[in-house]
Amino acid sequence: MRNHLAYAVLLGTFVLATLCLLDPVARAADSDGDFKPLLNGKDFSGWVFRNEAGKGAWKLVGDAKLDPSDPKKLIPAGEGATTLLRGAIDHGSDIYTKDEVGDVELMVDIMVPKGSNSGVYLMGEYEVQVFDSFGKEKIGPGDMGGIYSTKAPSENASKAPGEWQTLQVVFRAPRFDKNGKKTENARFVLVKLNGKTIHTDVEAPKPTGSELPGGEKAKGPLLLQGDHGIVAFRNLKWKPISQR
Quick one: which of 47, 153, 192, 195 is 20 to 30 A from 234 by CA? Predict the structure, then answer.
């Protein structure tokens, strides 16, 4: 039994090492490095509202929690400006970073109230769905952690409405030749939700819908969907990975 166990450990280590050698994105993401925070704790510097008329939907608050009088809403909690809250306003706006990256590792905590719907778009083009999927037995690409219109998560790792949930994404941007022709599709190298791996090596052959205009490119911003439902984000940070 011990020999079998030792062999399994060695085999797993070999497979992981081989994947890292073949994929510089996986290798870089597995290494230590500094993440850059995307919220400065003061204001919306570094962010752009897709629809200026809907910018009032977003507030910087200390924390968020379920509204005791309505589980379909979130309300501010605590002091400070470290949490991005999209409140109960009918017509909001998507919000995206001024900075653009290609290959990247992203970390973010997310809270949704009951029945809400939002999204996290890598490069402003490829959406990881944010949705209240707590307790669902059958899930699809439109559920929490799904690659929207592309692939369902491998399991339902969603927490209950009003709980903070942690999303980790390692993303490889599409590749283009010197003439601007796409040679490789974008892909989600790894997606974890609440510590559980829900996607590995999922190709995104095209934008997933409601993306920023301009088409696919080598670099793009991070976009948070704000024209749908109520949502909160905190601990939002990324680590760009050198493209090779």
Answer: 153
